[in-house]
Amino acid sequence: MNVKMVTGNEAAALGALRAGCRFYAGYPITPSSEIMENMSRDLPKVCGKFIQMEDEIASIAAIIGASLTGEKSMTATSGPGFSLMQENLGFAAMGEIPCVVVNVQRGGPSTGLPTRVAQADVMQARWGTHGDHEIIALCPSSIQETYELIIDAFNFSEIYRTPVVFLMDEALAHIREKLVIPENVTIIERPKPKDGPKDYKPFDINVGDIPPLANFGSGYKYHITGLVHDETGFPTDDPQITTDLLKRITTKISKNSSKIVKTKTFMTDDAEILLISYGSSVRAAKESVLQLRNDNIKVGLLQLLTIWPFPSSVIHEISKKMKRIYLVEMNLGQLYAETRIVIDSNIPLIKVNRIDGELITPCEISSKVKEG
Amino acid sequence: MYNNIILDRLRVDKLPTMWCPGCGHGIILAALLKSIDKMGWEKENTVVVSGIGCAGRVPGYIDACTLHTTHGRALGFATGIKFAHPELNVIAVMGDGDASAIGGNHLIHAARRNIDITAIVFNNDIYGMTGGQKSPTTPHGYNSTTSQYGNAEIPFDLCKLVEGAGATFVAREIQSNHINLEKIILKALQKKGFSFVEAFSVCPTSFGRRNKLTSDATKNIDWVKSMSVTKAQAEKRTPEELEGKIITGVFVDIERPEFIESYLKYDLSGANCEK
After folding, report:
1. B271 occurs within a structural domain
2. Interface with A, mutate which of B11, B43, B70, B98 (most A CBs under 10 A)
3. Which of A54, A66, A87 has the CB atom closest to B81's CB atom?
4. Per-residue pLDDT band at B273 (split at 50, 70, 90)
5. Domain for residue B274, yes or no?
6. pLDDT at B72
7. Size of interface A-B (CB pairs under 8 A)
8. Quick count: other Cβ atoms within 10 Å of Cβ B178?
9. What is the pLDDT averaged over residues B144-161?
10. Are A226 and B272 a contacting pair at CB < 8 A?
11. What is the mean pLDDT of chain A?
């Protein structure tokens, strides 16, 4: 058994390399910088490319460019840098170019609390870039999950031909715990086009909702633009083509949400009270469940590993048998509205939040639950 | 003969271009296509990247791998492509505002890094596509929709900027001096390292009409000609005489370690990279 003691940032880099990431471009920012440093050390060993760019805008631009040549590509940043990346994140969504963007969340807004934990970019991940779009965002709570889930992030980006946001947080990035390197993992490679270069269209809906992306330099020549485009990739402002394009690039993710949504449950079988959480606050929530169970309170936990697309069906289903639900987040309740609309209105949904840069504690959650 | 070369390298089904009558961009595009052809670059292994604006539409007309990205970011995307696959021939096409205002940071850092990309700025002294606002290259005292009483700012000398940042090839030419423009672009494409060409275009619609040059292309071209001075001529003139002039020629043609070659040398020296 291959076991390591690593931090979350190290696990993210290790998982990315295992997933086949061979191109990293980034700009230093706390608390994500160790991902960059690890990639700088380890990518050359596997003949990968590492480049430190002049800012976050150039970093995401470079990984999108590299991805177009067929390399699995990644950048990592934190809140302020993630804000700078938003325009090009939308370019990747519009051009349907796979890439993985890690955001190790810290306190905000603005420079905020650079060395402190927060989960304040959940909505930035969803709606940070302009225009109607869908995004995939995954959120691990442990070192093991970080390693395994970032492999899913790369796989989803290739399967759905989309950027994927990997939402970590400062606490997870810097804790050190056991990582068991799995012997077997599923790695998805980019589907190759069936059409030859002459007939190839980069957005050909006749071959499916997610047309294969040919790599630059592989004998194919075509055009990609951030403008609304037809199946050939060239710009158009035809109202019908515009509607069809936007519907396709959103539904390709929303209609596959059951395949993308990952959740875990903890002691929910007989639970009457449910905690919902994600990221490092899951760790406190789990401990809180144990505390409350000691007091004979029947509580369980639903952990969201996928934040976007939102796990609406899973939450709706599990909520039916609950008397009360607590949404535990280290922000002011960014997922409250999303959660509220998927559970019946007669079931109370109560916010449990912490925003002071400290990790939320099990006792805080437990006492909130005991308040009723 | 030239016509056939140009047509072969164009996506003719995308013609006519979306540029205004009298626009200089098509002439610069022709020089670029002829230079690419002289390099013998295969279309499938040539990548042309652009940002936003009138120059941003250039790649759409070129029969190659083409990428029309976000405003100012062409060089970021181009860097990723070239670094990931150094065997590809990568050209970044930018407008003056695209390259030197919103994209200025990427321009100086691509030059400093000395990555083997050719950057061509189609400089028409104005933001044409958005309706004629002043750009960082709009001459002092000239009018635009955002300098309606004369431009109070001092324009960039883009060649000096890029030279200072470390580019290994820096040149400027006006579109009407077409033969020389083509020669200069060819030299830039041949250069191993970051090469930069500032190609002076004209924008009769948005610059000319507001600066007593009218929308008549010939008057705009004549004005650019009248403002231009070759490097050799410039050496005989005083700084006062050269105020506001467009100095043309090759300013830098030097050797420095190229970024990707250095990466292969330092970072990948210990790795077994046979694929």
Report:
1. no
2. B70
3. A66
4. confident
5. no
6. 98
7. 140
8. 15
9. 98
10. no
11. 97
CA distance A226 to chain B (A): 6
Cα dihedral value B169, B174, B175, B176, nearest 10: -140
Q: Is the pLDDT of residue A127 over 60?
A: yes
Give me the mean pLDDT over the A231-242 stretch: 98
Is the CB of B271 less than 8 angstroms away from the CB of A234?
no
Is residue B94, in this structure, part of any structural domain at all?
yes
- Residue scoring higher pLDDT (B269 or A277): A277
Q: B247 is in which domain, residue-wise?
A: 2-263
B43: chain A residues, CB-CB within 8 Å: 221
Of B60, B69, B78, the CB nearest to A91: B69
- Which superfamily is assigned to A2-181 in CATH? Thiamin diphosphate (ThDP)-binding fold, Pyr/PP domains (3.40.50.970)
Q: Indicate whether this complex's ipTM tops 0.85.
A: yes
pLDDT digits (tens, 9 = 90+) for A288-341: 999 999 999 999 999 999 999 999 999 999 999 999 999 999 999 999 999 999
Q: pTM (2 decimals)?
A: 0.98
Domain extent listing, chain A: 2-181, 205-257, 264-371
**pLDDT at B275 > cutoff 60:** no
Average pLDDT over residues A131-140: 98
| Confidence band of A372 (pLDDT split at 50, 70, 90) | confident
Q: Count of domains in chain B? A: 1
Closest to B80 (Cβ–Cβ): which among A54, A62, A222?
Answer: A62
How large is the average pLDDT for residues B161-184? Answer: 97
CA distance A253 to chain B (A): 23
Q: Is A69–B106 a contact, with Cβ atoms under 8 angstroms apart?
A: no
Residue-level pLDDT at B1: 53
Q: Is B76 in Cβ contact with A58 (below 8 Å)?
A: yes
Closest in B68, B75, B78 to A224, CB measured: B68
Chain A closest CA to B113's CA: distance in Å?
10
Range B153-175 average pLDDT: 98
Taking the C-alpha atoms of residue A346 and residue A365, their distance in angstroms, rounded to an integer, is 22
Q: What is the pLDDT of residues A155-184, one digit of tens each?
A: 999 999 999 999 999 999 999 999 999 999
Nearest chain A Cα distance for residue B153, angstroms: 26
Percentage of the residues of chain A whose pLDDT score is greater than 70:
100
Nearest to B77 among A49, A61, A234 (CB): A61
Tokens of B270: 């210990």
Min distance B234 CA to chain A CA atoms (Å): 35
Asked if the Cβ–Cβ distance from A23 to B87 is below 8 Å, we say no
What one-letter code names the amino acid at B44? E
Position B225 in a domain: yes
Asked if A222 and B65 come within 8 Å (Cβ–Cβ), the reply is yes
Residues of B in contact with A47 (CB under 8 A): 268, 271-273, 275
CATH number of the domain encompassing residue B225: 3.40.50.970
Fold of A264-371: Rossmann fold (3.40.50)
